[in-house]
Amino acid sequence: MPLLHIREDAIRHLSKAESFRQGYDYYETGAIRKLWVKESIYYAKVGRSRLYKVVIYEKEGTITSSCTCPHIWGGICKHAVATMLAISRGDSIEQAKDDALISNKELPHDCMSFVDGSKAIDRTSSKYKNEILSEMKRLKGKESYDKNPEKHESLLQSIVDKFVAKAGKYALQKNYKAAITIYQGICDACVEGLRYKYHRSLSSIIFRTVQDACVKISEFVPYLKSSLSDKIPYFDYLVEIYYSLGEPEEFRAVFTQAAKTPEDAAYILDKTRLDLPPHTTMELLSIKGDYEEVVTFGENHYVEHPEIALPLAEFYLIHGQRSKAISLAKKTLKILQKSKTGDPFEFFPYIPEEKIRLFLNSCYSSTINYAKA
Fold first, then answer.
1. Domain residues of the chain, as ranges?
2. DSSP-derived secondary structure for 227-268
3. How far is CA 340 from the centre of its chain?
4. Strand pairing partners for 274?
5. Residues 218, 219, 220: CA angle, nearest 5 degrees
6. 40 phi, psi to nearest 5 deg
7. For the chain, how long is the longest CA-to-CA vector?
8. Eight-state DSSP code of residue 277
9. Per-residue DSSP letter, 74
10. Which segment of 90-94, 160-164, 341-345 scores lowest on mean pLDDT?
């Protein structure tokens, strides 16, 4: 079988500058521990203190790579760069025996996330959840968390990172449905893990992991370009996680990021019965676009929750109510200034005075043609 033709300029084109530099260093310092080929697909084990598994193959005339490392920042990773350099320079490549890959289940599945492109892999969120829980349970036999919390948190993070990396690779292939499935598995495993007494000691990192996973789900849902009926299961899932954790502030960005159409926002608002943080409700109402609903909610709550004043003022401005926008911004400044002389522990983290002043300056700017009230 002829070798895959890979030129160095092509490798540079496929990678970011820093990844190429690091990959070149890995190649030169012998970080490729094993390199073999089977049926025109190249496999390698690359790394120093930790080995990662690389797959290089050609799909529709394009050189493609996969790696089990957590690289998701664009371009191919340093491990893939090192492997491609070895192939391009004709380094010794083993011919794999028929059973060479049977004992290594990660490589074929990791490769499939690229070979199949946008097609879904036949794995459910339950399967991912069970895999993660199985690895989490192994932490129980380790040294006491109280004696070495950093070690336990690091071990848990390494478990999660492996699945996050896999989801990232599906997302790079625009297979957002598969990526969401993995993040659902991560969420479900973490929520389930909190039921075990041992894992409660890791609750802070578990809550953060769930939050990060939900943010990713909400980021990918709009890319599905589906009808509302197709997105409803994902909205329902996010609402379910929201209520199960009881952490409203942590979900500030989740619902507003997932809802991109008035129909999306209306469904989430109805599903939660407006039982959301005021600033989240305000943003969703703005997306929904019902003028009366936005104004009524905003005017009724901005004194107690000044953080919603800026979205309301911007909404007024968009709808040609410039004088109302300016008046509201000025009133909000007074509320914030008054709070400084009252309870020293009272503060409004989502609306610093500087943003209000910048908004007012923009309203008075002669270079911007805002509609007059």
1. 8-113, 290-373
2. -HHHHHHHHHHHHHHHHHHT-GGGGHHHHHHH--SHHHHHHH
3. 36
4. none
5. 95
6. 70, 10
7. 79
8. -
9. S
10. 341-345
Q: Is residue 334 within 8 Å of 358, Cβ to Cβ?
A: no
| 255 touches 276 (CB < 8 A) | yes
Q: Report the run of H or E that residue 293 belongs to, with start and end.
A: helix 291-301
Residue identified by tokens 């690289």 is: 71
Alpha helices per DSSP H over 116-202: 125-137, 149-172, 176-193
Comparing CA positions, the residue from 41, 181, 184 lying closest to residue 120 is: 181
DSSP state of 76: B
Instruction: Scan for tokens 């699945």, then name that residue.
Output: 163
Radius of gyration in angstroms for the set of CA atoms belonging to the chain, rounded to a whole number: 26
Structure token digits, residue 272: 């939660």
Edge-first strand order for the sheet with 51-59 is: 62-67, 51-59, 41-47, 32-38, 94-95
Predicted TM-score (pTM) of the model is 0.64
Whether residue 66 contacts residue 14, with contact meaning beta carbons closer than 8 Å, is answered with: no
Give the span between the Cα atoms of 28 and 350, in whole angstroms.
Answer: 50
Cα–Cα nearest to 312, from 271, 351, 364, 254: 351
DSSP strands (E only) in the chain:
32-38, 41-47, 51-59, 62-67, 94-95
**Residues 339-359: pLDDT tens digits?**
665 444 444 444 568 888 888
